[in-house]
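Researcher: Sequence recovery benchmark, item below. Answer with residues only.
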């Protein structure tokens, strides 16, 4: 399409159909950093606009690589805390750095590709509320749902979004650990179930602790007055990471060397059972204001992952009763998914 291999910023913005960005993108008044930030942001948004279930995702994967290349050219993989730049620019850099990090990890998961950002080349510190000090927050009333909810009814949508963004970054770091420990070309060779379970237990504990640390303001029972509830993708991403980790363990039980430790097999099947049932229950209980809200770009893949994970448990069943249970569970999930479209 473009002989240079680089997509022009103007073309990206036209594809995105973002009037605000088009209006603000003034080459005469913008600094080089501001122009490049807009280009990198536009690249991320364009990648996320694509369907991760599309079998021909070479174009989207290429866009993700270009966005990462732009970010590395800007030095977004480096800690800019002590750089001689304005505070607002340090904040923007840090937020955009973690956006690129999440794009890299979740794109690799959805497309089954390699990650491009490696821990040895990443020095960006964790996000804090101070990194959003230059963001303006517009108020919106929040009311609790049937279960326990927040007491601060005046909490703004923007501040809640900031909190959710930071939670998503922490979850992505756990996903990164899962990918590096179980899904690289080297670690995929390990098939001993006992060894894999020992490696997985700390990550399972990290996931459990992360899930329990979700504040009340980000729970699924929140109801916004005349607004959509956008917390679904955060919780669904948690189930996605958990299933990604567990499917590696479940798969190993069906491959040589076969595990003969009944306790290990029972532990894996029990954790997988709880995770699959919780994920299916999550999908079943989604409200209309959940379904119509914003969902992260990997959400279509995660919906399919629930079905494929259930299928994996079906084909690796240890008894006829278990096989029948998972067959009925899968049929129910497929019916629920089809009827909610």
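Model:
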């Amino acid at each position: 399409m473009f002989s240079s291999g680089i997509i022009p910023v103007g073309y990206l913005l036209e594809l995105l159909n973002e009037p605000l960005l088009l209006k603000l993108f003034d080459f005469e008044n913008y600094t080089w950093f501001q122009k490049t930030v807009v280009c990198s942001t536009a690249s991320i948004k364009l990648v996320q606009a694509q369907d991760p279930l599309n079998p021909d995702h070479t174009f989207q994967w290429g866009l993700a690589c270009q966005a990462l290349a732009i970010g590395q050219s800007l030095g977004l993989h480096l800690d800019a805390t002590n750089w001689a730049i304005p505070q607002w620019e340090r904040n923007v850099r840090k937020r955009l750095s973690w956006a690129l990090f999440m794009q890299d990890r979740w794109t690799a998961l959805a497309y089954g590709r390699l990650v491009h950002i490696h821990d040895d080349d990443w020095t960006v510190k964790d996000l804090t509320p101070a990194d959003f000090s230059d963001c303006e927050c517009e108020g919106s009333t929040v009311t609790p749902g049937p279960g326990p909810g927040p007491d601060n009814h005046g909490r703004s949508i923007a501040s809640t979004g900031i909190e959710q963004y930071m939670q998503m970054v922490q979850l992505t770091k756990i996903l990164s650990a899962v990918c590096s420990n179980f899904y690289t070309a080297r670690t995929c060779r390990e098939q001993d179930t006992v060894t894999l379970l020992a490696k997985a237990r700390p990550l399972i504990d990290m996931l459990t602790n992360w899930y329990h640390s979700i504040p009340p303001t980000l729970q699924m029972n929140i109801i916004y007055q005349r607004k959509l509830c956008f917390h679904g993708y955060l919780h669904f991403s948690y189930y996605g990471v958990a299933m990604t980790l567990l499917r590696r363990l479940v798969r190993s039980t069906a491959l040589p060397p076969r595990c003969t430790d009944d306790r290990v097999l029972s532990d894996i099947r029990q954790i997988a059972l709880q995770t699959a049932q919780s994920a299916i229950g999550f999908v079943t209980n989604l409200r209309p204001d959940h379904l119509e809200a914003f969902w992260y770009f990997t959400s279509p893949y995660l919906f399919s992952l629930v079905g494929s994970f259930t299928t994996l448990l079906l084909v690796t069943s240890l008894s006829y009763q278990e096989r029948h249970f998972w067959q009925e569970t899968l049929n129910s999930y497929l019916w629920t998914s089809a009827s909610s479209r």
